[in-house]
Amino acid sequence: MKSKNNWIRLVVGGFVLMAMMTNCRDEVPVDKNLDGDEERPTFFQLLDSTQTGIGTVNRVADRQDFNILTYRNYYNGGGVAIGDVNNDGRPDLYFTSNLTANRLFLNKGNFAFEEVTEAAGVAGTRAWSTGVTMVDINSDGWLDIYVSNSGDIAGDNKENELFVNQQDGTFTEEAVSYGLNNRGYSTQAAFFDYDLDGDLDCYLLNNSFKDPSKIELFSSMRDRPDPLGGDKLYRNDGGTFVDVTEQAGIYSSVIGFGLGTCIGDLNHDLYPDIYVSNDFWERDYLYINQGDGSFSEELIDRIDFCSISSMGGDIGDINNDGHPEIISTDMLAADNYRLKAMSTFDPYHLENLKYRANYHYQIGQNCLHLNDGTADFQEIAHLANVAATDWSWGALIFDFENDGRKDLFVSNGIQKDLMYMDFRDFLSDNRIFQKIASGQPVDYPSLMEQMPSNPLPNYAFSNRQDLVFQDQAQGLGLGQLSFSNGAAYADLDDDGDFDLVVNNVNMPAFIYENQAESLANHFLKLEFKGPPANPFGIGAFARITTSTGLQTLENFNTRGFESAVEPKLIFGLGRETLIDKLEIIWPDKKSQVLTDVEVDQVLQIDYQQATGTVQDSHLPRENMSWRFQEVTDVVIQGDATHQENQYNDFDHEALLIKMGSTQGPKIIRGDANGDGRDDFVLLGARDDEDNLFLQSGDGTFVRKNSLGLMQGRQFESTCGAWIDLDQDGDQDLLLGSGGNESQRTGDFYTLRYYQNDGKGNLTADQEAAPKMVGNFSCLEANDYDGDGDMDLFLGAQIVPGNYGLPPRSFLLENENGKWQDVSPEALAGAGMVTDATWTDIDGDQDQDLIIVGDWSNVHIFKNNDGQISYLTPIRNSSGWWNCIEAADLDGDGDQDFVVGNWGLNSKFKASVQRPLGMYVNDFDQNGKPEPIVTWYAPLDKEAYPFATKMDLTTQLPGLRKRSLKYEDYAGQTYASLFDQEVRQKSLRYEAKTLHSAILWNDAGHFTMEPLPIEAQIAPVFSIVVHDLSGNGQLDIWLGGNFYGLKPQAGRHDASRGVLLEGQGGRNFKAVSSRDSGIRIEREVRDAHIFSIRGEPVLLVARNNESLVAFQRQ
To answer: Cβ(414)–Cβ(959) under 8 Å?
Structure first.
């Protein structure tokens, strides 16, 4: 057995050449700009308190007996509710305050407000107010005010309050008489008709005061009711609210750390559903209304992961496809300083432990869940550029400028930086946490002075279409530094656009006048005159159709964080001058339709005019002439499950971002038994057998036991090919090995040859196998020299345990059964190869070689009569490429390429101006190299190391002296961490694009065009090009996802498979999995089209999952 150093020398090749190839300038240009910005005009005007009459409404000062260290929600702030409480036609404002009186302001017109708190009797008497909702509790046509309270941990001075409007400018507190005087730790209430009986019921969100560090992980605490911490559902029974929490299927436990709730009909059955955002360990809840008075909590089944520290949220249709999305906020910073100094992330093993304990996968970021139309969701926050907004509270989805596209406002900031890591270390080092827990005296004011306080700007994301948003808070006039919490919108001046109100801590509330009318966009404003028990039409559904498409809105007013919007709707119309159709569906399913509706008007929708009845709000499905259905159980006979062996790469390489041990399985297609039908081998992980499936005459694939394959189960098979190596007329099997587990020997990285007897019986014959050793990712056979036998390209991806060192790849020429290494230097050092393909790119009848890889350009090796030479790579094509497929996509007679990259739904972004970087060196001189990855955080103009302080100093303890504190490390760049002499010896990589793309071939000149946005939703690991739709045009199907990431890098699981239907020429249209029928979850690693009785069948292999099959109907 070779020593470790010899093994590394054997597989590392072209170190210096690789550095040159990665950074060289290229001659073949990329013709399309992959980046771009769109500016919007400023039209939000922050009004001075001298004009509005509204100053600071929520003053919170730390006290010795009551502060952030004794009450963890001390800086959560208050909410705001908007509605016309005196029925004068102008919306009024009610603010909650934590320590001081709540305040009611009447709208006097022209943005002047009069405080009437004392006269109205709505100041509140409880210890600490949180959320507020306006609701017509007694159906008299006058809005009442429901205030959620908390704060008094041990006592009862936290009962919620209900101020009932007396119609004379005064209110009386009547929570007890209505049954709504809950004594729990309440955050917010939402009123809606969940049982469709005509009146409004109440979901009450509570925030348990249980210490989250003392959660019993496997004890099913979620099922134990708790009277104070658990959420409640109250059914309205004729004006009395009855607790039906348990019978309705609502969790009400001590681990319910509710900070946000929003209501919407997510699955179009006209029954309102509930989304609940939970802080700390507890996962969020997604309650699907069953229509029988109960809910089914289905988050794990419908959402792949949720935020860890979920705050507020909203529900709204962001892409105008008629299906409402969900957003929840978290605390992910958008700049390097706050990420390093004030952020912490779960270790990988804890993330998986949470999942196994039914806490689901949770990632520290905002989550934007895209609805596929069936209430199955794909998380796209990074794709949409809305994942990182720092310490965020409320999220509001509404149309800023009435252009017809819904935008996103996020309130942001906290009075004290509770996550400041150096302060937390100070508390731990001085045993202060223990003193607090044991009740020992602590000088709290002195401690508070050491905690930083940094106001932050709020975020305002303009909708740029195609699921992408751009933060334009500063340009829109919404970017003031603040400690903002609750926020709500309403048309305060009745000009047809939504103005914005924000409740701040220790600073004046923000009143923003929206001057979007200056843009000359049109609108339609809806006011509702509902049925007797629901006068304001809460829950009404509205949908408009215009020449440019459709829009939908729902009249639920609890939104964002601790807040409620005015119960009216505004459709922005852009330049549309007529609405073709307006559909209204009331909560009891009665409906009305108006046609040819004029714009720029306030339209009153009267329930009495609803003469129709509907059963759902589904849109008609696209009329597809073709569709696939799953046929796995029909065509697969035998176990076709890939079983990944358990191995945590991060335990051995702390600076890794993504695992190298979960790359399989591949499908190796070929005719194993010579019957003219394609068979396949499904490759296995280490200790998981490779499985041979033979296609029978009836179109099924039957697993064939193979002693030869079983004997190789100690290898992790990663690639292979069926080729007639012994030239006896049948197809033999050659397999390559890989994985990242065996780092001290090459014994598990050899090629394996299986001789075929012509009937699919395989016998191992290692003597006949090429003797090359490597962690091979691809094995591509081709008679490139035209001598009648098959030659081989062997691409290697990583050096096990040494990520970043470029492994050696091989070009092997077959000389009468003898293998000659004829690798050009550039090919041997092609980098971390992931895939390759042989094809003729220039029409000279020679097979050229195109190689893609991790941190690599797209490399082209030209074949001139059997001589392989390196061409200049595609310019600015360096990426995290995973796969490549050749086809004449545009029908012009030459070969184009589809290339699968990391995609855009990732924390990582890359461009020519802001590339990702990686520097590889043995920085600590211990004989093992380390990779230092650098990136540009969204708000930064300089690249910084991505690794956390803990990961970096664990791997490189010598750096601790340079970064004793987290704040020290937050300012460190790669150049400041390492001396120039060390940097000069480092291998440097860059990635300039993460788009999956098409390389269009125009007579050997390649143009890189990004695939549609739907194709960028996840990393792509498999590409199929075939006429799947049967329209005579080639289509593209993409499979992907990747779970093996450091938690701070996220989790990529949004793809269900992406089908791009060919429209002719160079045009492709994305077809949803709902319409195509090809819906595949989990981590796709390979896919192939097989012909079964003349019909195409798509076989898809997934990591640690069963193979699935789909056939066109």
So the answer is: no
